[in-house]
Each structure stands twice: as C-alpha cells, then as structure tokens.
Amino acid sequence: MDKMTQLLKLLENTKSIEINDFRMDFDELELQLMPAVQQVVQQAVQTRKAASEVLPMEDFKPPIQEYPGKVAEVQLGKGSRKPVYLGGQQALYRFEEAQPNAPVVTFDVFDIPMPGLPRPIREHFSDVMDHPGEWAKKAVKEFGANMVTIHLIGTGPKVMDKTPREAANDIEEVLQAVDVPLVIGASGDPVKDPLVLEKAAEAAQGERCLLASANLDLDYQKVAQAAVNNDHAVLSWSITDVNMQKTLNRYLLKEGLTQNDIVMDPTTCALGYGIEFSIDIMTRTRLAALKGDKDLQMPMSSGTTNAWGSREAWMKKEEWGPTDYRGPIWEIFTGLTMMLNGVDIFMMLHPTSVKLLREIGETFVKDYMTTDLPDISDWITQLEG
Amino acid sequence: MKVTAMDIYKLLPKTNCGDCGEASCMAFATKLSEKETDLKLCTPLDPEGMEKLEKKLAPAVREVTIGKGDKQVIIGGDEVLYRYELTYYNPTALVIDVHDELEESELEERINIIENTEFERTGELLTLDAIAVRNKSGDSQKFIKTVSRLKNSIYPLILCTLDPDNMKAALEVVGDERPLIYAATENNLEEMGQLAQDYQCPVALFVPGDLEKMKQLSHSLRSQGIKDIVLDPGTFVGDGIGDTLDNFVMIRRLAVEEKDEDFRFPIMGIPALMRLGSKEDPVTKSIKEATVAATMLNKYADILVFNGTDIWELIPVLTLRQGLFTDPRKPQAVDAGLYEFGEVTEDSPVLLTTNFALTYYTVEGDLKSGKANTYLLVLDTEGRAVDVSLAGGQLNGKSVADLIKETDIENKVNHKKMVIPGLAAPVSGEIEDDSGWEVAVGPRDSSAVPDYLLEKL
Ligand code: B12
Ligand code: SF4
Fold first, then answer.
1. A17 interfaces chain B, CB cutoff of 8 Å
2. pTM over cut 0.80
3. What b/e readout covers A119-148, taking b as 16+ CB neighbours within 10 angstroms?
4. Does A373 reside within a domain?
5. CA of B13, closest atom in ligand 2
6. Which of B195, B216, B318, B335 has its CA 20 to 30 A from that of A300?
C-alpha cells in the first residue's frame, strides 16, 4: 500500500472525529506532508463533506423529442411483385415512436458474369452468373433477399455496349424469375444511362421498380419521365453534399414525381474511406427531414457494396488475416453504420453481411423493452474463453 | 453547448500576469474555450473561482481517467450528440478481457497478443487501450494471482468482480494504479462505492436493462461524493440489441441535452457478451462480436470490452473508431512538397500524389514495403484524395506545374518524366502542357507501383 492509501485508511478509522475538528489537527500535520499526498487527503476530506450533502434528484423521464416533420413512405413492388415499404418514420428512434418499416436489403445481381467480383462473393454465385434470372432467384431463395438490384453494366459503351432493347430483355428475365421488387441500375455512362433506364422502365411497367439513378450529370428529366409514365420510383443520387441533394430533389419534384416516388442516395463512403463524411451527411439529412424540410423527407439508400473497393476488404496480406472474413465484415460495418444514421435500403453483395444486417434491422421495428432479455448479471463468471 | 471565451474571461483574475504562459487572460480564455490549455495553469486563481470555472468548463460527459502516468486512458468528454456539430472527444477505449482460470501459458499468450495488437492506418498506429481481468473463479487467491501478473502489463486495468472482498483484495495489489472498478450493482453499491473512495479509483455502475434504477444508483454514488463513474446499462445482443441501443442513446441524450447529472458519465459496452452461451462457430462469433461493437461505437460507447483477439476482427473496429473520432474541423492532410524514398539519385523516378492523409500514407506504405527508390511529389489538394481533387479541380495542370517549381525537382533529377496515379489520367495532357514534363499514367492502385517501377523503368 502506498502512502496516500495509508493516509486514507487513517482517515477511515477516525470516523468519530468531526470533520471540522479534524481539519484543525490536520493543519499541523499538513506542514510535514508531501504536497501530492496533501492534495489527496484534502480531496478525501472534501469528499466526506460532500457525502453529507443531499443532492436533489429528479425522476427518470425518457428523453423523447417532438418532431414536426416526417419521412415519406415509398412503396416498391406492385403488380406481380410483393410490395416492400421504405421510410415513414416520425421519429429518430423506436423508443420515441414505433418505427413503421424495417430496413430493407437488396442483393446485387449483374447482367454480365462480372469476373471482377471479389472471390468470397463469386464462390457463392459462380453457377448462376451467366443468367441474371437464375442469379436473382438464388439471391432470393437461398439468401433471403428482400429485393434484387439488377445492374445493367453490360450496356456500358466500354463494357459490352448492349442496346437498351437487350437491357429490357434482361429485365424481363429477372421479373419472370423472382417476385420481389427490383432496383434497376444502369452502367454509369451519363449519356446512355437515361436511354437504358427508359427502355427498362417500359419493360417493367406497373411493377414499381426503383430506377437508379438520376443525378445532376445526366438527363435526369428523362429518368424522371420514365418513372412517371411507367409507375416507378427514382433513386436521387448526390455526392456527399446536402445542398446538391436538395437541389436535385427539387428538380425531380418539378418533373411530376412526389415525395413518395423518390429515394435518396447521399453516397456511401466505405469504412476507412471517408465513412465519417457519409455519417455526417446522412445524419444531417435525416434530422432535416424530421425538422420539416420537405425537400429532404425521402427515405435514404446506401451503396454498401462500395465497401468491397477498400483495400482491407480485398487485399491479400498475411498480417491482416483471411480476406474471406475481412470482406464481409467490411461490408457489414459500412452498412450498419449507415443504418444507424438513418439509411432505409441497402445495396449489398455478400450473404453473411446481408443476413447480419437484416437481423439487426429487424429489431428496429420492435418496441422498446418488449424483447425477453437474457439474464446477464453474472457474465463475469459465466463467460467462457 | 460550448462556453464562450467571454464567459470564461469574466471569471479569470484579469491581471494579465502571464503565469499561464499566455500573453493575457483573454488569450488564455480563448484557449480554454477551445480545450487547448489547462485551467490549472492559472495559478493566481483562487479555489472558489477555480471551482466555478471547472464547472463551467466541464464537458457534457465527464472525462474519466483509467490508469495513471504513462499507463492511462481517458474516456468520455463529449459535448454533442452528432460529430458534425463539433467533434467527438477521446476515442472509445478498446479493452480485451482475460480471466483467472486461464493456465499460465494461456494467460501469457493472451497478454502477448493483446499487447502486440496494432494496425497502422494513415500514419497512425492504432492499438488497444486496456485489459479487463475477470474474477471468473470467484476465488480471491486466483484473482490476486492474475491481477499481480497484469500489474506488469503495459496497459491499465479493469478489475471485474461483483464481490467486494475480492475487489478489495485486488485493489491491495493494484489500487495505486487507478484501475476501473467493475462493478457496483444494486447489491453491493455501498461497499464498492467505499472502495472507489478509499483507493481513489473510478467505478463502473452495472445496471442491466433498467435506466430508472440506474439513475437512482448513480445518484447515490454521487451522493457518496464519488465523481468518476462509468455507466454500463447492459449489453444485450441478438434480439436485444435494439434495447441496448435505445439505452445508450437515452443516456447520452439525457447527458447532452438535459444535463441530467446522474447520466453525465461515459458509457460502457461489452461486445464480449455476444459469446455468452453462444453455440456458433468461432468465426461467426467473432464477426458478430465485431458487429455488436460497431453498433455501440456508432452510438456513444466510450469503452468496449471484447473477448475475441483475431486481428481481422479488430482491424475494422480500430478503423471505425479512427473515422468516428477524426476532427471534422480539420482537413486530414500531410504537408505538400517533395518526399524521398529509399536511395535516390538523379536517375530516380518521380511520382505524383495528393496530400490527403489516407492517400499519402497508403502510397507511402506501398513504396516502403515495395522497397522503391523514388521521389514523390505531394500536391496540396487541401487534403483531398486523387479522384476527389480531380472532380473538385484542385488537381490540374497548373497546380502540378507550380509544385514542380516550388520543389526544385528539376535540379535534382536529370530527366523530366513523371508517373501520375491511374485515376489522374484525365489531366495527363494538361500536366504535360503546363509543365513541359512527360507524363506516364501509372496503375490505379498504388500497391502496384513498386512492380510498375521495376518493369517500366
Ligand atoms: C470520401 C470521398 C469524398 C470526400 C472527400 C475525402 C477526401 N478528403 O478526399 C468528400 C465528401 C469531401 C468528397 C467530395 C467530393 N467528391 Co467525392 N468521393 C469520396 C470517395 C467515396 C472516396 C475517396 C477516397 O477516399 N479514396 C481513397 C484514396 C486512398 O484513394 P486515392 O486518393 O485515389 O488513392 C489511390 C489511387 O489513386 C492510387 N494512387 C494514389 N497516389 C498514387 C500515385 C501514383 C504514382 C500511382 C500510380 C497511384 C496512386 O492508389 C491509392 C490507393 O488505392 C470517392 C469514391 C470512391 N473512390 O470510393 C468519391 C468520389 C471521388 N467523389 C466524387 C465527386 C464527384 C466529389 C465532388 C466533386 C462532389 C461534390 N459534392 O461536389 C466533391 C469534390 C470536392 C472537392 N475536391 O472540392 C466522384 C468523382 C467522380 C469523377 N471521377 O468525376 C467519386 C468517384 C464518387 C463517384 N462515384 O461519383 N468526396
Ligand atoms: S495566469 Fe491567470 S491571471 Fe495570469 S494571465 Fe493567465 S489567465 Fe490571467
């Protein structure tokens, strides 16, 4: 035991002495004490003094806030699809107000075999990669996808330069194969994308798909019209910029779309690659919606698959452990972080990541303290390992 | 809410004596408001003024120090609910547990792994922060033995037992090092509180799933005069994760927005509980433990206890923590200019990159591990990545031409050839025109640069 604790012991054993009296004796003592010890003893005396104070206490009240605004609800899937609903929140957390819709995961499927996909994903789908319909079926049947995203990468002029007509055929194939709602993504070519989305939208008329995407760098008017004419919703994509998002949404609303026809993608920067930028943007966007900003009251989407571009997800490196585990974890962390900051729909690739994210997402629609909680009070002795 | 420099100034002695190292009281007040100096440096301030100011400057969440001297970690200190509003302070402490029923060799191995866990990212060495010692046996002798061994560890300790006698026995050994006492509960509150006072140690309050009771108990600890408290509202996993999250959020809201004194303390989460009674395979357990940790890291955990030690489980946790706790007010940048790698001569190649910390350190790591001998020009893009600064216009022909002049690289090498990142291909012509240098477009990812240099040059 060191000197300070000895002194404290001493104090403990002299309980009968009044603090005031004690202080007087103490003055003499003080002179001989080391300054550091002095300080501790004084603290202890003050502590004793504080102990006699009765602190006022208020009752516990859950910190529930009032929100003037509400997130719009967007329906995806209609006609021959089982519908899925996004958004609809009136509060930030479920302890404030029951949350209407659980987060939704949509599985990425491609119109070409995609040799570039990371191995941990390819190995799950290598048998179906030649047929987008089969691929979609596997994602739904085996891996429990709520939705499927069909990326028409093959339409890219530098990829296979498939025509919009061919793209429409691929859409038909996938629509036949599964009855979940679809996200229809193009190749990322600003000139061709609107043309591809237009034909794809016609092929899927009345099925209420999400057209991905409209942004300020392409003919967003054409994309919006394709949605209005064929009863689809539009993904409004901006790059980590709340004002840019607002502007684009306003333009889309002018084209005849309503709040219930738009989903926003404020851009997901992956874990370790600027995830904090996305956290800030998503948080600000959702708070603005609940505060009543009509231009930002749409549900949000995350391109969670961006996580696979991170080195830590794919690069072979002995000291970092197997990529088989790193990849899925990177995707989970990226998606989960977005989910906790307000995102409603996730575009993902790996079955394990999808499963875990959905499990957590499902708990969001339960009510506060309605789950049977296990007894963890003895974890110190009970935890193995 | 942050206090203003003026609010602080009013309570200072206003003599401008300079003892604090600042030119004036106002300058000192400004620094205090930015949390850039320590109030104690104002020696002329009387105790009463000191107390008033301390209270004023106290963050919404109290800062609690675990450990002492060069073996300490500070947790808490946050002022806001969302990082964009200011910044988060004191990165969440990451702790791994050991217990007192491990064989000696197992214990040694585990300590060794914990102490050597590190991961370098953007020039920062990310490591763990503390070790939790569990009194799994319930036996005080075994506990003391394990705690004694850990006294020599490089990390501060968390002593885990609900038995006050065993806790006291452990404190006899390491009580002078400010371990965190885990935990006071409704059944042992008095005794644990007493130990916390006797040994001047911080104490964790463990009240699973009942915030109302937690408030009462926190209140009575405070009434005992205890200041350094850590709150563990229980980590429930699986279907219970939603409740865990709700409790964490409520505690932090009450602290920040309502200034509820009973909740103005750091929050503790225990992802290790994911393993309690779990029948899953080891890999799934580790993935799930990390997932639980990510949930709590995002929503306000100040300290987390793990059981898993796999590096692939910890790397994402360390990375997420680093991201969350970067200061949004500061660009993440390195100094622009000319850098040298390996042995450079006038024949050495010249590469170009940007001064975003992540970009620079990624490239640096690749050049070092590939043992490249090369010059690297680092362009000031105000801390933006290659493709970001390309999109934003900071990376262009003129800015590169200026960099060439400023660094005087033309007098260091006998050629005018530069390799630019694959992603910068769109500005290769521009750079050639503005600088008169020949530009080669390199690989997209800098990990391929060392091989590229060997093959092409
Ligand atoms: C995070 C991010 C941001 C952050 C900024 C982070 C930062 N400090 O740079 C924020 C939110 C601020 C941002 C803003 C913008 N962004 Co941004 N952003 C990203 C994101 C998600 C990641 C960038 C990143 O961190 N990369 C990681 C670093 C390490 O990569 P790197 O610097 O390229 O380095 C690698 C290689 O280039 C190479 N390398 C590096 N040096 C060298 C050297 C040599 C010699 C060689 C051979 C190789 C090499 O190796 C490195 C390691 O792999 C990307 C999308 C993506 N890539 O995933 C979009 C992205 C870059 N952004 C984009 C855009 C459009 C913008 C904005 C213009 C949007 C806006 N709101 O106005 C602004 C521009 C801001 C400005 N410059 O003024 C687009 C660019 C599209 C394009 N090419 O035109 C992207 C690609 C997103 C997209 N898909 O549309 N962005
Ligand atoms: S030490 Fe105190 S009184 Fe002296 S200048 Fe600094 S703030 Fe003012």
1. no
2. yes
3. ebbeebbeebbebbbbbbbbbbeebebbbb
4. no
5. 3
6. B318
Which is it for strands B337-341 and A345-348: parallel, antiparallel or unpaired?
Answer: unpaired
d(CA A129, CA B399): 45
Residues in A closer than 8 angstroms to B209, CB to CB, are 369, 373
Q: Angle at the Cα of A250 (from A227 to A184), degrees rounded to 5?
A: 30
Q: What is the DSSP string of A178-245?
A: --S-EEEE--S-TTTHHHHHHHHHHHTTTS--EEEEE-TTS-HHHHHHHHHHHT-EEEEE-SS-HHHH
Q: Is residue B329 part of a domain?
A: no
Instruction: Test A54 with B223 for CB contact under 8 angstroms.
Output: yes
Is the Cα torsion angle B376, B381, B382, B388 positive or negative in sign? negative
Q: Residue B205 CA to chain centroid, in angstroms?
A: 23
Burial of B136 from C-beta contacts in 10 A (0-12 / 13-18 / 19+):
buried
Place of tokens 């763990």: B128
Same domain, B368 and B450: yes
Ligand 1, pocket-test mutation among B356, B388, B394, B455, most atoms within 8 A of CB? B388
- Residue B100 near residue B134 (C-beta atoms within 8 A): yes
**Residue B267 DSSP label:** B
Check whether residue A291 and residue A182 sit in a common domain: yes
Are B275 and B237 members of one domain?
Answer: yes
From the list A40, A336, A363, the residue facing B291 with the nearest CB is: A336
Q: Which token pair is A354? A: 């999808």
Q: Is residue B280 part of a domain?
A: yes
Tell me the two tokens of residue A269.
């920067």
- Residue B35 is assigned to a structural domain of this protein: yes
Q: Determine the residue of chain A that is closest to B289 in CA distance.
A: A329
Cα distance between residue B32 and residue B19, in whole Å: 15
Cis ω on the peptide bond leading into residue A213 (within 30° of 0)? yes
Rounded distance between C-alpha atoms, residue A258 and residue A242, angstroms: 19
Q: Are residues B365 and B403 in the same domain?
A: yes
Contact B266, B233 (CB under 8 A): no
**A105 bridge partner residues:** A346
Is residue B386 in contact with ligand 1, taking CB distance under 6 Å? yes
Lowest mean pLDDT among A112-116, A126-130, B142-146: A112-116
Cis bond upstream, residue B183 (ω within 30): yes
Q: What is the ipTM of this complex?
A: 0.89
Read off the pLDDT of residues B94-112 as tens digits, 9 standing for 90 and up.
999 999 999 999 999 999 9
- Rounded to the nearest whole angstrom, what is the distance from the C-alpha of residue A236 to the centroid of ligand 1? 20
Report the alpha-carbon angle B302-A367-A284, nearest 5: 55
Interface of A with B in 97-136 (CB under 8 A): none
Point out the ligand 1 atom lying closest to the alpha carbon of residue B332.
8
Asked if residue B435 and residue B396 are part of one domain, the reply reads yes
- d(CA B44, CA B62) in angstroms, rounded, equals 25
pLDDT of A46: 54
pLDDT digits (tens, 9 = 90+) for B122-160: 889 999 999 999 999 999 999 999 999 999 999 999 999
Residue A278, class by beta-carbon neighbours within 10 Å (0-12 exposed, 13-18 middle, 19+ buried)?
buried
- Partner-chain contact B298 A5, CB within 8 Å: no
Give residue B372's domain range.
Answer: 337-456
- A242: closest CA among A292, A282, A279? A282
**Ligand 2 centroid to A324 CA: how many Å?**
58
**Token representation of residue A275:** 């995830």
B187 → chain A, closest CA residue:
A377
- CA angle at A156 for the pair A150 and A158, rounded to the nearest 5°: 145
Residue A230 CA to chain centroid, in angstroms?
29
Atom of ligand 1 at shortest distance to CA of B442? Answer: 47
Instruction: Provide the pLDDT for residue A53.
Output: 58
